[in-house]
From TrEMBL:
Pfam families reported in the protein's UniProt record: CybS
Annotated protein name in UniProt: Succinate dehydrogenase [ubiquinone] cytochrome b small subunit
Family indicated by similarity: Belongs to the CybS family.
InterPro entries noted in UniProt: CybS, SQR/QFR_C/D
Alphabetical GO biological process terms: mitochondrial electron transport, succinate to ubiquinone; tricarboxylic acid cycle
Positions that bind a ubiquinone: 70
Gene Ontology cellular component terms for the protein in this record: mitochondrial inner membrane
Source species: Elliptochloris bilobata
Cellular location(s): Mitochondrion inner membrane
GO terms of molecular function: heme binding; metal ion binding; ubiquinone binding
PANTHER family from the UniProt entry: SUCCINATE DEHYDROGENASE, SUCCINATE DEHYDROGENASE [UBIQUINONE] CYTOCHROME B SMALL SUBUNIT, MITOCHONDRIAL
Superkingdom, natural source: Eukaryota
């Protein structure tokens, strides 16, 4: 299986993809509290970048599991390409938010800020 096939079929790409999914699960469990409690600074910035990678990767593997379980085989290939496109857009959007915007954590905190 080529690298592209492993990315497209992330749910059935073998133990490496499964391990990556499990690692992002653990990373998210640790990063979210840090993001909520850390003051502005280097730790929060590093947490934002880690979240910007972990969230799309975790979601990509998970959505491929849904595709395998529920999408008809006749459209599964197109659906997997769509999932990869969505993952790519999310990854680039979060990267842009971290590089040129306030960062993921600050943007999310703004949603709950009282006006």
């Amino acid at each position: 299986m080529s690298v592209l096939q492993k990315i497209l079929r992330a749910d059935s790409a073998g133990s490496t993809a499964q391990k990556m999914y499990e690692n992002t699960h653990v990373a998210l469990a640790g990063l979210v509290p840090v993001a909520l409690l850390a003051p502005e600074g280097v730790i929060l910035r590093a947490t934002d970048f880690a979240l910007g990678v972990a969230v799309p990767v975790h979601a990509h593997v998970a959505i491929n599991s849904v595709i395998s379980d529920y999408v008809p085989k006749s459209v599964m290939g197109v659906t997997r390409w769509g999932a990869l496109a969505g993952t790519s857009v999310a990854l680039l959007g979060l990267l842009k938010l971290n590089l040129t915007g306030p960062g993921i954590t600050s943007a999310v905190k703004e949603l709950w800020k009282k006006k």
